[in-house]
Amino acid sequence: MKKKTCIAVFVVAVPLLGQSALAHQGGKASEGYVGDGRTGHLVTNSVGQCLHTSSWSKDLAVEECDAGMMPKKAAAEPAPKPAPVVARPEPKPEPVIEKVSLKAGALFDVGKADLKPAGKSELDAMVSKIKDNNTQIEQVTVTGHTDSAGASDYNRKLSERRAEAVKAYLVSKGLSGDRIVTKGAGDSEPVASNKTAAGRTQNRRVDIDIRAQRTTSGN
Q1: All domains in the chain, ordered by first residue
Q2: Could you give the C-alpha distances from 122 to 11, 66, 169, in angstroms and in order?
Q3: CA torsion through residues 125, 131, 133, 136, sign
Q4: Residue 100: left (phi > 0), alpha (psi -120 to 50), or beta?
Q5: Residue 203 burial (CB < 10 Å; 0-12/13-18/19+)?
Q6: How far apart, in Å, do the first and last CA atoms of the chain sit?
Q7: This model's pTM is above 0.90
Q8: Which residue from 17, 158, 180, 205 has the least number of CB within 10 angstroms?
Q9: Which helix (H) or strand (E) holds 211?
Q10: Where are the beta strands (DSSP E) in 18-129?
């Protein structure tokens, strides 16, 4: 009689870390955490928690599993505010400078400092031109001149009186007296030779320098 030999094969199912263990695809295993031996991915339980090894400590914590134990990241500094844009002021327009030279013979009688009607008419035309050009007066310089006939001191004083007479008339026409400067040059600044009658006529004059700013209308 042949004896039959029976070999009992016991199959023992050993669950890998419990039946709820799952391979987590989100990150690679590292020291302190259980990883899938085939893929190297972290292994989590059924509720998504990573599984620690016996060597795990807080120092081995990783962001994917124990974010609450990770050191807090310093908040990024806010970007600096852009510097405010400062509007550049509009450039100031260049001043308008006009020079007017009036012959003394048209303004005054010989040796006198009283304006003649013809002289007033010339000054009226000048004032009208200033107003029509929309200019704001900054300064008016009135300089009286004579020829070389007579003493220099007399000529200087006469030229001063004539300059003052012109100023007084301009003020009466609306120009500000604070902006009008008068000078008496006498015979010290000739523009022609005093040896001829024609030259002396040119030297007897009143120069008016007008410095102003053009203004725009309010339309």
Answers
A1: 22-68 (no CATH), 96-214 (3.30.1330.60)
A2: 132, 99, 11
A3: positive
A4: beta
A5: buried
A6: 134
A7: no
A8: 17
A9: strand 205-214
A10: 22-28, 41-44, 96-103
Instruction: Please list, residue by residue across 158-193, b when 16 or more beta carbons sit within 10 angstroms of its beta carbon and e when fewer do.
Output: bbbebbbbbbebbeeeebeeebbebbbbbbeebeee
- For residue 86, give the DSSP letter: P
Tokens 């989100």 sit at which residue?
26
The encoded tokens of residue 117 equal 């009607």
Structure confidence by residue, pLDDT tens digits, 63-119: 788 777 777 777 778 888 888 888 888 777 777 777 888 888 889 988 999 999 999
- 205 neighbors 102 (Cβ within 8 angstroms): yes
Locus of tokens 């893929």: 39
Q: How far apart are CA 145 and CA 189, in angstroms?
A: 7
Q: What is the pLDDT of residues 159-201, one digit of tens each?
A: 999 999 999 999 999 999 999 999 999 999 999 999 999 999 9
d(CA 20, CA 26): 17
The tokens for 71 are 């050191």
Phi-psi region of 196 (alpha: psi -120 to 50; beta: other; left: phi over 0): beta
